[in-house]
Structures are given as structure tokens and as C-alpha cells.
Amino acid sequence: MSSHQRHLRRGFQWLGGATVIARGVDLLTTLAVLPFLSKQQVGVASLLIAIGMVVEAFVGLGTREALVQAQGVSRAQLDTLFWFVFGAASLLGALVWVAAPLLQALFGIAGMAIYFLAIAAKQPVVGAALIPLSMMNRDLQYERIAVVNVCATFGAAATRLGLAVSGAGVWALVAANCANGLFTLIGAQLARPFWPRLRFQIREIWPLVHFGIRVAISNGLEQLFKNVDCLLIGWFYGPDRLAVYRVAFAIAMEPAIAAGTLINGTALPIFARVSAVKEHLAQSLMWSLRRLTVLIAPLAVALILAAGPLTALIRDGQGHSYAAAALPLELLAAAALLRVTAQLLYPLVMGTGRPGTAARLSATTLLLLSTGILIAGFTFSGQTGLVAVSAVWLAVYPLLLVWETRYLGRHWSIRPAELARTLMMPSIAVVALAAIVELTRSLSGGDPRTQLGLILAAVAVTYGGLFLHAREQSYRAI
């Protein structure tokens, strides 16, 4: 095993474990607070957090990625960059607060503007954490990053649960999102302290900013792509319908979002280091793709199989069921499986110094998704509209994967047959998983809890088999 593959494995183990824990805790605590919130409150909070995520993508103007890929960084650059990022983030937060009444009017939700205070306050906090997080990532200190992320997640989860139980309503979700940024800053400063000096020399950071602006455009488009569905569904169908969709989306897409975080946190610095040797880059890409599909594919298929019984058990604060989320959940879980494989191209083009390609890919994806959702929104109403929007997600990714396959073949000499061999074992595993669940479904007697128990047992068996196979392959490689 080469040194870059060892770094990738260590990154996947630490950041992968931390990401799974973080996303799992986020998902479980979000589901746990649903009985304390109405669908209206969940929908409003989802809309606010979606807007906040798009805004947050521009904090730092892409200089985090610029720091990771830079050949060398001086102390003067770090000092100047801190004040540049902190100032820009503070300005961004102020603009959010000023725009709050306009956004409230746009979505037609009374009392929405006050909650933007949390989103505005989060921006400078996130900006202050950029330098220590970037330096840990640059130095491949995956263990420290993992600890910071997990601790911040638990802090935000405790905030979410405490506020929800106390009857805080929308604030339970919005304030928890803001708290995550604060806990991340505290953890980053403890793990890799950075206290900036009072100096500012813009010429020192111009190369980083020049690179970062293109990255920021890509990041902004990527976040808009991730959240445009919430924005449009909130506009077309209102917060109640958005709550149903968000529950389906959170359950289905959280593993894919976690995988995206894992990809960018682990693969980007490795791809940047081996980008000069095409063979090493291809090996790292294939290794990453295989590990990601092994991690996500069984879970995605299990969610498709468990959609009905799972959503039947979830209820809101007024006792109403979220069963309407079942079909959107099935479609979104299938889309999530495709999304995982498509996401790997972003750190590849970033690590090889092609942020423009990432920006174009993000823009194309955003255009396809938003166009599809707009068509669905103007064509369908109510529950049918939510199903149509979920189907748009599933329709977008095959188109992207065809283009990405051609790109890999043209620029990195990776043939479709090689990609197919990489995905063979996860494909066999998920087919076996589905077969096991279908054979045992009659044993449940129609009880949702029993069905979920059988599916969980089948998932455990599948992951156990994949783990044993991976360990056997590692022994052969030694």
C-alpha cells in the first residue's frame, strides 16, 4: 500500500467515523425533536437553515481550499487572511440581517425575519474558525478534526434537544445550527490554537484570494444546489409540505451529505499531493470510490426498503404522522446512492488546480435541478408535487455520471470498465441485502417495528460481509 493510500485510509477511518457519528447524531436528534414541533415550525426552520447554508458557503471566499492546496504559507499570510475572512464574514452576516425583512416578504411567512439573527451571528464565528481548521486539514491531522467535529455535533445536539423540550419551537433547530459553528470554533482553537497578530497586508494573500474566489463560486453553487429544493418547495408549497419533504430528505440524504463531507475533508489534500502523477491519482480515486460505495450503498438500499414502516412511526407535535414522506424517501434514497459517486469529482478537480471545472459542474447541476423543480412546482400540487421534486433528484444524477465518466476517461485515462469493477462488490452486496429483506418480510406480520428490526439485521450482516471481504483484500495486498 502506497503512502498516499495510507493517508487516505487514515483519513477515511477518522473523518469517516466522525462524520458517521456526527450525521447520525444530527439525524437522530432531529427526529427526536419532531414530537415537540409542529410541521409549520419544522418547515420554517428548514427554510432558514437552507438559506443559512447558502450564505455560509461564501464565508472565507474559498480561501480554506486555497490554503490546503498551497505549496507554502507564511505567518504574515495567515495573519492577514484571518482578518480578511473575519471582516468579510462579519459583513456577510450584516447583509443577511438587513435582507431578513425582504426574505420574509418573499416567502410570505409572518415572523420569519427575527430568526435570521442566528444566521447572521454564525457567519463571523465560522470565519474565525477557518484558519485552524484549514491548517489541521493541510497537515493531515485527521484525528484532531474528527474530535472537533464530533464534539461540536454533540454540543449542537444538546442545544437542539434542550430548546425543543423547553418549547422553543423554531429556535430549537435554528439556534442549534448556530451553536454548531460556535462549538466548532472553540474545538478548533483548542486543537490547533491560532491567535492572529494585528497586521494586514493584502498583497500577501492575493494569490490565495484569487484562487479562492473561483472556489467560492463553486462552493456557493454547490450549496445552492443542495438547498434549492427547500427554497423552492417552501415557496411553492409552504412550510407544512416542506416539513414532510425535509424529513424524507434528511433520512435519505444524510449519508450522502456525510460522504460529501468525508470526501472533501480526506481526499482533497491527498489528491493535491499526488496530482503530478496520473497513475497515483487514478489509484487514489478508485480506492476512494470503492470505500465510499461500500459505506453508503447498503444503507441507501436499506432506507428504500424501510421507507414505509419508518415514516409510519414518525409523528409531529400534534400527533400527525409523517407517512406521506414514504415515497419521496424511496426516491431520494436511490438518488443519494448516485450522488455519492458523483461527488468524488469535486475534490479531484480542486486538488488538481481546476476550480473552474468544479464551478461549471456545480452550475450545470444547479441548473438541471432547479429547472426540474420549477417545472414540478408549476405543474403539480400538494403531495404529488413533493413526489415529483424527489423524482427530479433521481433523474439528475445519471446525466452527471455519464459526463463525469467521460471526463475521467479523457483526462485521467480511467475507463468505464475499471469503474464497473470497482463497484462490483458493493453491487453484489446490495442485491443480496434486498433479497434477504424480501425473503424475511413475511415474518413481520405487517408490524412496522418488526420490519425495521429485520432490515437492521440484514444491514448488519451485509456490512459484516463487506468488512470481512475488505480485510481479506488488505491481507492479500501486503
Commentary on this structure:
It is built from 17 helices and no strands. It is an all-alpha fold. The relative contact order is 0.12.
Characteristic key phrases:
478 residues, mainly alpha, 84% helix, 17 helices
Largest sheet: none
Shape: globular
Q: What share of residues are in beta strands? A: under 5%
Number of helices: 17
* Quaternary structure classification: single chain
Strand-and-helix sequence, N→C? HHHHHHHHHHHHHHHHH
Tell me the number of strands. Answer: 0
Structural class: mainly alpha
In terms of per-residue confidence, which ranges show pLDDT below 50 for 5 or more consecutive residues? none
In angstroms, what separates the terminal alpha carbons? 7 Å
Q: What is the domain tally?
A: 1
- What share of the residues lie within helices? over 70%
Average of pLDDT: 83
Please compute the radius of gyration using only Cα atoms: 22 Å
Write the SSE topology.
Elements: H1 3-33, H2 39-56, H3 63-69, H4 75-107, H5 116-128, H6 130-138, H7 142-165, H8 170-191, H9 202-274, H10 278-313, H11 326-343, H12 345-351, H13 355-379, H14 382-412, H15 416-422, H16 424-440, H17 448-477
Helix pairs in contact: 1-7, 1-9, 1-10, 2-5, 2-8, 2-9, 3-6, 3-9, 4-5, 4-9, 5-8, 7-8, 9-10, 9-11, 9-12, 9-13, 9-14, 10-11, 10-16, 10-17, 11-14, 13-14, 16-17
